[in-house]
Specification:
Distance between the termini: 36 Å
CATH superfamily of the largest domain: P-loop containing nucleotide triphosphate hydrolases
Largest sheet: 6 strands, mixed
Helix content: 25-40%
Structural class: alpha/beta
Order of helices and strands: EEEHEEHEHHHEHEHEEHEHEEHEH
Strand order of the largest sheet: 6-7-8-3-9-10
Number of strands: 14
Number of helices: 11
CATH class of the largest domain: Alpha Beta
Bound molecules: adenosine-5'-triphosphate
Strand content: 25-35%
Number of domains: 2
Amino acid sequence: MDIKIDNLTKNYGPQKAVDNISFEVKTGEILGFLGPNGAGKTTTMKMITNYIAVDKGDITIGGGSVRSGGEKLRKHIGYLPEHNPLYLDMAVLDYLEFSAALQGVPGHQIPERVKEMVKLCGLNAEKHKKIAELSKGYRQRVGLAQAMIHNPEILILDEPTTGLDPNQIVEIRKLIKEIGKQKTVILSTHILPEVEATCDRILIIDNGKIVADGTADNLRKQAQGQELLTTTIEDGASEAIEKALRAIPSVSAVERLENNRFEIQSKPDMSSKREVFKLCVENNWVITELTPTETKLEDIFRDLTTK
Ligand SMILES: Nc1ncnc2c1ncn2[C@@H]1O[C@H](COP(=O)(O)OP(=O)(O)OP(=O)(O)O)[C@@H](O)[C@H]1O
């Protein structure tokens, strides 16, 4: 089920939280929603899940507008809110049965659905415990199970791995990736490697506006523009090597990192690899390292959101 967002705007009084954004998410796609604190991620997610009303613009889910059919559309959506509200006094199984009934799962299907979610979310060993007795990570798993209990076609996950230990993070990411093959998933996070590990596409929002939309590779390419190489060249004096590198016509800047290790920036749309190689052959210098430096997602994020 596809989600289409058209010119969506939300204000809280004078505070503009979401400012005229448009994007689409297709079935089978996992979209990573990134942005600094207060960027508008949760507000957007709350509008998609119909927890708060849209001010301007529209959201269509499977072709139906949230403006006219919000209640009906809710059954297609599973939502893990940022603070994962749970009934702490309930046992895991009771809570999941209760959530299933709330979400309109027919009574005779509830035991089977609960069983499936317990298995999928790795809750078997904890299923008889009260939620209050669970660790943070297991509470998060219960939140995920609750979000998926009615087998929704769309999953909206607000910071799903917050508070999890590294092992649990890997497991929950695996789980989301698996689920995302058939469903439409939007997840927000502050953890940049998480987006690379889990998401097909990244949307970066800042001050209520979309500032980037694409795959991690695309964003990197856009940000890179210029080739950046790290090289170690041996068997020559570092001053002479640096001078010769600077003289290569395609090179725009050279920075010496350590003794004979340099960072070479090429001019826009030019590559210096072959010239560096030829230079070393001519001078009997030996290249022991020549690697293109990847722009990190962190750098792209900082670049786009700290203006
Ligand atoms: N109920 C509210 N009343 C007034 N302002 C609000 C309310 N909820 C959010 N805001 C404001 O709207 C803006 C967007 O907030 P939102 O919670 O959507 O950001 P976010 O990207 O989810 O941030 P975070 O990463 O910190 O969770 C912020 O300036 C915030 O202070």
